[in-house]
Design a protein that fits this description.
about 270 residues, 4 strands, 4-stranded mixed sheet, cell membrane, alpha+beta, about 65% helix, 13 helices, 3 domains, single chain
Length: about 270
């Protein structure tokens, strides 16, 4: 996002956080998130409307007035308040206005998970789902098919998730399908990172030769926290081809402590 849009998103996110605090936070946050995604669906289908509510050359009062006329009485008051705040802000592009709404919808659902005491669980479930989609190429291909109806693809994923994850994980995952800004794998992994950020943590992607237990993950998180100077959230997956050890990625930095890497380096030195 451009600087103006980032500022707009930050202000809207603060407004969202304050708005959903009134009443039942879990229910309000869930409803607000779902309704914001419904608004995005409407805007995706109507370019003229999308421009009307985000055009920086139009006065903010006019943009919020359009929102009030279109959505007043049709969505819950907290959702309407957030939507009017988004329209009030100055966005660099119409696309970034739309992307901001998606981010706010996700943030609202994650705040609901937080209020329910499930934010860490949702983060882990989202990451594991991204790994499942990475392994199951046929499933991911079906979910990424732009010629298929979004409702059919969401139904397919819902069947995969039914009874296995929290309602927040399911809602966050289903909203990705039909609007893959990147692809389902990256998009879902990105929401997991957003959940970590709400927990004031950075993400360390860890690939290990065998599954790490809770104690090993906690120890690794502590060591990485000392290295990077911030709390870390550990996302792990298993790759037996490493033979031993782990490969850690934090941002663009990779620490390869695998046995496979040691062997390859030894071979290179002896060549």
């Amino acid at each position: 996002m451009h600087a103006a849009s980032r500022e707009a998103l930050n202000k809207a996110a603060e407004h969202l956080d304050n708005t959903i605090q009134d009443g039942n936070v879990v229910a309000t946050a869930a409803q607000t998130g779902i309704e914001l995604f419904e608004v995005v669906d409407t805007l995706d289908d109507d370019r003229t409307l999308r421009i009307a509510v985000s055009d920086p050359s139009v006065e903010a009062e006019q943009r919020t007035g359009i929102v009030e006329r279109l959505y007043g009485g049709k969505i819950a008051e907290p959702t309407l308040s957030v939507l009017k705040e988004v329209a009030r802000q100055q966005w660099s592009t119409t696309r970034e206005f739309r992307d901001g709404l998606v981010e706010l919808g996700r943030r609202s659902l994650l705040r609901g998970a937080e209020a329910q005491g499930q934010l860490e669980q949702v983060e882990e479930e989202l990451f594991q789902l991204s790994r499942l989609l990475d392994r199951e190429g046929k499933l991911t291909q079906l979910l990424s098919d732009r010629t298929a109806e979004s409702s059919a693809k969401r139904g397919l994923l819902a069947n995969v998730l039914y009874g296995k994850v929290t309602m927040f994980t399911e809602a966050l995952s289903l909203q990705v399908i039909g609007r893959p800004d990147k692809n389902p794998i990256d998009d879902i992994a990105g929401i997991a990172e957003q959940a970590a950020q709400l927990r004031n943590r950075s993400v360390a992607h860890v690939v290990a030769a065998e599954e790490l237990n809770e104690g090993q993950q906690a120890s690794l998180a502590e060591k990485l926290g000392q290295i990077y100077g911030r709390d870390m959230s550990i996302h792990t997956e298993v790759d037996a081809s490493l033979l031993g050890g782990v490969v850690v990625r934090v941002g663009d930095e990779i620490i390869d402590g695998s046995t496979r890497n040691h062997i390859e380096r030894l071979r290179a030195a002896l060549a």
